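> example.struct
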């Protein structure tokens, strides 16, 4: 099983969206994603829950979690999301950074734009890494 970690500071927006899209699109027998943060928030931002609901993904029960060595164990890749100096480092794991704005406090249209950019980046990542999409998965 190939594991990809999406991380941002509070694990309440960008990383939650990216992991949710990855898990929707990837064949779950072959790959999955985990989202985590260096300083997890109490909940996923309500505006993120709203824009993800618009594309049929329910994050209302998602709980931000801390990126720990146990969470990162066995991961193939860590994708950080514009967290600058606070971005985590996991020894031995390939890393990429997607410089995306934090959706916290942004207007609905801005968060939709961030969501759509994340969707495109997840699709490109999957293609670049040869991750087979679920045949019935529909990208929004």
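> example.seq
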């Amino acid at each position: 099983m190939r594991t990809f970690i999406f991380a941002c500071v509070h694990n309440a927006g960008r990383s939650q969206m990216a992991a949710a899209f990855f898990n929707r699109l990837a064949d779950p027998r072959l790959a999955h994603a985990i989202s985590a943060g260096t300083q997890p928030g109490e909940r996923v931002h309500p505006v993120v829950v709203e824009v993800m609901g618009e594309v049929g993904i329910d994050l209302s029960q998602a709980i931000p979690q801390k990126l720990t060595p146990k969470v990162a164990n066995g991961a193939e890749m860590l994708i950080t999301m514009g967290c600058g100096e606070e971005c985590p480092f996991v020894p031995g794991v390939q890393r990429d950074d997607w410089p995306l704005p934090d959706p916290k406090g942004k207007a609905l249209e801005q968060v939709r734009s961030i969501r759509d950019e994340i969707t495109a980046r997840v699709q490109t990542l999957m293609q670049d890494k040869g991750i087979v999409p679920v045949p019935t998965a529909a990208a929004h």
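> remarks
Helices lie at 14-25, 46-53, 69-72, 108-128.
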